[in-house]
Structure formats: C-alpha cells, structure tokens
C-alpha cells in the first residue's frame, strides 16, 4: 500500500562488478526503494553460473526488486527465471539478452582477452562507448578506477561470458513485471535490445531514455523515477 516502507532493491553492477558506479543513482535520493548493492569478487574470474550462486546467497528473505545494469542483465534474467521467493519485479538497465555488442564493435570480439584489459582504460574510450562525450571528468575517473580494481583476467572472463550469453529462453520463465531502461544513445550495446525483448515479452515496459550506455550514471533521476514508480505500483498491488 502507498506510504509503506521502501521496497528493498538488489542492485547488480556492470562489468566492473564493484557497484561503486551506482553512486549517482544513490545520490538521486531513493525514497520508495531501499538499495542494496551486491558486488562481485574482483580477484576471482567467476562466470555467470558462479555469480548466480553468489547473488542467490545474498537475496533478502522478504519482497524485493532486482535491478541489473549492463553485464548483469543475463544474470538477473536467469535468477528471475528461477522465481525466487520474494521477487516482485525485474529492472534491466542498458542490458541485453544475447549478442550484446553494437554491430560496429563485432570485429573486436576476437581480441577479448586479458591483454585487452591489461592497460588503463583511456578516457576517450570511456566517453565514446560508455559515459558519453560530455561526461564529467570525475565520472570518467571513477569508471577507470572501477575497471582497474578488477584484474585483467577477471575483466576478460566477464567479457567473454557476456559475449557467450543467451537468456532469451529464460526470459519466458520470468513471472514478475519487467521494466527495461534503454539508452537512446548507446554505442556499446545493440540498439534493438528493447525491441527484441518486447517481441519475446510484449507485457514488458520499455522506457527509452536520452542517455549513453551508462544510463544510471548519466540519467539517474529519470531512471530512479521509473524504478520507484514500478516499486510503488507493485506495493499498491500487494
């Protein structure tokens, strides 16, 4: 019912796995959700199977939302498909179901390995593919620090997991409302993910936001408004 306690929201991070990049969303002042970040081990090259166990062990005992950013999208879909007790809604932000890369990036798939992540991520690449050309310097530095905190082996393992993922069949087993926050200016992930998801799940809500791939960081207030609207509707519905 309206006016009740905030709904716990389990936040699953992007490929850096740290959760530190959720800071802009948290600073936007959540009132209808109570965010709980589940970070991934920075030194262990865990795939989606192992990360699923990791996240499953961190779930609360009561009602909760599952909010997944980018890399964690397939992980969240697989978990939601298990229909864990207490799950009331699934939010996918800049996420994907399979074949994640923007078509222009397909040629680099064969280059993914520890060597690719063995050097600091250039600010120009952060801005072009992730944070947007007008991204604040502070956000670019935070992305570089978050990515650099995980070992090159871990980052490469996660990237390869994302390239191999395919959770289209799992999506059909998700029994809770699905909200998709789709960046309108994504240069990293395919632009048709929202359309693909709607074709598989016409009951999902797809919201296109004028933002680059890092939608939760560059449009935190707009994203939070949609997430909290879903939380409010779910609370009203019991």
Protein topology:
Elements: E1 7-12, H1 23-27, E2 33-37, H2 48-56, E3 64-69, H3 73-81, E4 87-93, H4 123-131, H5 137-149, H6 152-164, H7 168-171, E5 178-183, H8 193-200, E6 205-209, H9 215-218, H10 220-236
Parallel strand pairs: 1-2, 1-3, 3-4, 4-5, 5-6
Helix pairs in contact: 2-3, 4-5
Q: How would you sum up this structure, described in words?
A:
- The protein has helices spanning 23-27, 48-56, 73-81, 123-131, 137-149, 152-164, 168-171, 193-200, 215-218, 220-236; strands at 7-12, 33-37, 64-69, 87-93, 178-183, 205-209.
- It is α/β, with parallel strands linked by helices.
- A six-stranded parallel sheet has the order 2-1-3-4-5-6.
- Strand 1 (7-12), helix 1 (23-27) and strand 2 form a beta-alpha-beta unit.
- The longest helix has 17 residues, at 220-236.
- The protein is globular.
- The relative contact order is 0.20.
- The mean pLDDT is 92.
């Amino acid at each position: 019912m309206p006016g009740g306690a905030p709904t716990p929201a389990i936040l699953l991070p992007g490929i850096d796995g740290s959760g530190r990049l959720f800071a802009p969303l948290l600073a936007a002042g959540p009132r209808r959700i109570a965010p709980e970040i589940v970070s991934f081990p920075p030194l262990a090259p865990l795939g989606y199977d192992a990360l699923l166990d990791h996240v499953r062990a961190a779930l609360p005992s009561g009602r909760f939302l599952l909010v997944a950013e980018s890399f964690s999208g397939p992980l969240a879909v697989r978990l939601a498909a298990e229909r864990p007790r207490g799950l009331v809604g699934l939010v996918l932000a800049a996420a994907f179901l399979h074949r994640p890369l923007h078509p222009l990036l397909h040629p680099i798939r064969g280059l993914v390995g520890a060597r690719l992540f063995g050097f600091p991520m250039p600010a120009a690449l952060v801005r072009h593919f992730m944070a947007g050309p007008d991204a604040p310097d502070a956000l670019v530095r935070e992305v570089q620090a978050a990515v650099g905190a995980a070992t090159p082996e871990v980052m490469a393992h996660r990237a390869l997991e994302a390239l191999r993922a395919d959770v289209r069949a799992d999506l059909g087993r998700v029994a809770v409302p699905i909200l998709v926050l789709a960046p309108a200016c994504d240069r990293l992930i395919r632009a048709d993910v929202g359309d693909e998801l709607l074709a598989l799940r016409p009951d999902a809500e797809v919201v296109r936001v004028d933002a680059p791939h890092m939608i939760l960081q560059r449009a935190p207030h707009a994203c939070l408004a949609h997430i909290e609207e879903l939380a409010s509707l779910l609370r009203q519905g019991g």
